[in-house]
Automatic annotation (TrEMBL):
Keyword check for Transferase: yes
Protein name: 3-oxoacyl-(Acyl carrier protein) synthase II
GO biological process, one term: fatty acid biosynthetic process
Species per Swiss-Prot/TrEMBL record: Chryseobacterium carnipullorum
InterPro entries on file: Beta-ketoacyl_synthase (IPR000794), Ketoacyl_synth_N (IPR014030), Thiolase-like (IPR016039)
Recorded GO CC terms: cytosol
Amino acid sequence: MSAVYINSTSCISVQDTLKDHFFQDLKADPSVQVLKAIDPNYKEFIPPAMIRRMSKTVKMSSIASNYALKEAGIEKPDAIIVGTGMGCSQDSEKFLKNVIDNNEEFLTPTFFIQSTHNTVAGQIALGLQCHAYNFTYVNTSSSLEFSFLDAQIQINDGEAENVLVGAADEQTNRTMELYRLNNTIKKEEDLPADYLHSETDGVIWGEGAAFFVLGKDKTENSYAQLKDIQIINRLNTEEINSCIESFLAKNKVKKEDIDAVILGFSGDAKSDVYYTKAMDLFQNSALLYYKHLSGEFNTASGFSTFMACHILKEQQIPDVMMINATKKEEIRSILLYNHLAGSDHSLVLLERAL
């Protein structure tokens, strides 16, 4: 497939990523089990009567997509594609609670209707009055990557010129309780988390929404060129380096040509070994990590893609993201590697839009 361009990007996250020049204000908090996204002033964008009926995922996505479209100078995209791991789980929990509290009788369908995973893409389309291609991918940690692949296909096949692509996930109280019980979330006694040299299992959980406008043509404001994506469901730790090498070879890129590698270290000792192995390949690259800033969640790769876009455009790397001391004079290419608990591995190759 031909490369496409990321012409705008927006993110709501644990960091204040909606404001300008946010690089210097990035802060990690390794001492809490759950990180909450910073809420913008939703009333500036959404009527108060509608806000009450929206889950956090829909609200975050509505604002982030609005920012991305505005930056790209597009009123209606030719397609809307959204990735999510958990969907609108707040409304799912409300519906299930009603089922239990009312003994499965006299149930209103509102929470059920609003709990479906494609609610986000649907609400964005309704807000824009956009009747174009509308699709949702639910593929755990590779949901955004599948959305990017679909957008590439739409653009390469001539079905679309500009595609709104996003990823979002929210937290819910009951799900967080369950994650604590099954040790998905780190125990209190294992905090503060050591993301790079962890000896304990579990992660600090986060949330957020990231949106991008992908186009077939480069613009003055383009952030990056999306060169290629590869997704693999299962890998042994011994296979990861050969997998990365074959991915780079397919794109006629040498590992020495990769200026920066963004790895998804989550502080989970069991699954972070993949990233430790991958680091061995890139002795001359800047090695970065990001989940200490965003938390771990199904679509955390949206945050890393957002950061990669800004690094390529602004040609600087925040010190808080750096694993090693390597710094390149020019950052032309970035490789992103992510997985969730050792499954659904994704590789994304971005290049500077020149």
